[in-house]
Amino acid sequence: MKNFFTIFWIFFLLIHSANAQQEKEIITKNVWLKNWTDFKPNLADHNEPSHILTGEIVEDIKLYKKETYLLLGHVFVKEGVTLTIEPGTIIIGDYDTKASLTIAKGASIIADGLETDPIVFTSNRSVKKAGDWGGIILLGDAPLNKFGRGSVASFYSELEPKFYKNTNYGGENVVSNSGILRFVRIEYAGKKEYTAGGSFSGLFLAGVGNETIVENIMISYSAGDSFKVFGGEVHLKNMVSYGAAGNDFSFNFGAKSHLINSLAIRFPYSSNSRGARCLNIKSYNKKEEVDFSKKGTSLVAENLKLINNSKDLEFDIQAGLIKEGIYVGHNTSVSMNKSVISSFKPGVILEDKILSNLENLEKIKITDIHFKNCEGYVLSKNDSNDLALENWYANKAFLNAFSVGNRPKIFIADAKTAEKENKIAKNKVTINKDTAIPFDFIDKAPTFPGCEGVTKEESKKCFKKEMRLHIIEHFRYPEEAQNNNIEGRVFVMFDINYTGSITNIRSRGPHKSLEQEAERIIKLLPKMQPAKKQGQPVKVVFGIPIAFKSL
């Protein structure tokens, strides 16, 4: 059997039973989630498809609950045509053809489910995984901040030219109506590697106008973003994103949206390596593609719960698996209120182009937010802005608060002194064999044989390179895991003490045999020259993921 091994490969890894209590608690505390959501869609048993949808739908059509439908390849609803879906209908995306459903500009979809009878889009695989099929694309003729119009033609591999007309979006009609999506679940979407690179999204809304109704949508296990909005003026209410690899909610290219009463639950081991966020708010990817005479992206968000569901928060933060909860890009406007941001590092981060002046900060309103178990609150990619941001958002008038564990809420302003003291304490060197310093805080990395003589700046890069080579050289796929088709990623952490010896190896992964192999590899590491802080040898903790995948 061929073995495929990649360091830092991010894969889908969730053990559903371990989260049963949390899912029950979520639904109990949020009445609006009852009946129509499903946090364990892998347990559902759907009928075999009785009808196939493929190619272009050129006349009005209605799908019925009594039937089960298969999306085969890329399916387009043509301009002027309406696709109506009865409550309770099951639509299955074909894995082999990486199916998708696109509602062209000028077409409409009426998928108006019921709380007790939602419409479900899902995968046709017996063992379902993120990215089994494409997802739903809804295109409209509302404005963008791009030059000209937009197109999604590059999303589809080997698209026939006759379908190009169904891929355009954008216009001047803010009040356009692309239909209704209500009480709908979209599962295991986000097909990877379309021709422009990247992934499909569970639900992609491009140039969609404000007469379109998008409410009570749950997207589970998307390999790309769950919800992606380009331009337009679409408003989202009662959204749920669960276990996404990409961003939970992404807004770009002049989108003017409201996001109300919504939930995002992330898992450190399913997020992609680019550092996906709950909210990703940008006005452009490249400056040259947008018209700065047009307004940038603006988002009004209220009553959100953004949660990183980590079983061991300290471990995952040290391992670098947890990033910021919200990213705010240049030339955007954000108003966020009455929300919870839980277990991120930090809660919010601003692009370094955003200067901390009154004009910019008045465009980014963050009020009445409870930051829970976050390492940092509102920070900037440009570290020199952090003090100004702290002083601004710590103002008690904004009602922002934080808590750690079960401790009661404390105003951020009252916590600043303690937080700064903690940061200073982290940087103090105490040569104690029982105290390990995080890898990011040391001045010079432990020295592998072969890395002698490198500068402090080069030492960490050389250390990581040699670690990768060591793992590749000594990697073995456990026979038990191969025979039982067990795969996944093991995160292994260990200490290199102040004498350069490897100690305290611990691991976490999907199976004991994989954990044992990861620990065996680390035990074979050579003795090194110790790490240094302020010129003194120190003990350092380091972590690295090791991926096991059979082909």
TrEMBL record:
UniProt topology in membrane: Single-pass membrane protein
Domain spans labelled TonB C-terminal: 462-551
Protein species of origin: Flavivirga amylovorans
Protein name from the UniProt record: Energy transducer TonB
TM regions (residue ranges): none
Main location: membrane
Compartments it resides in: Membrane
Signal sequence range: 1-20
Organism superkingdom: Bacteria
Keywords: Membrane, Signal, Transmembrane, Transmembrane helix
Xref: InterPro entries: Pectin_lyase_fold/virulence, TonB/TolA_C, TonB_C
PROSITE patterns: TONB_CTD
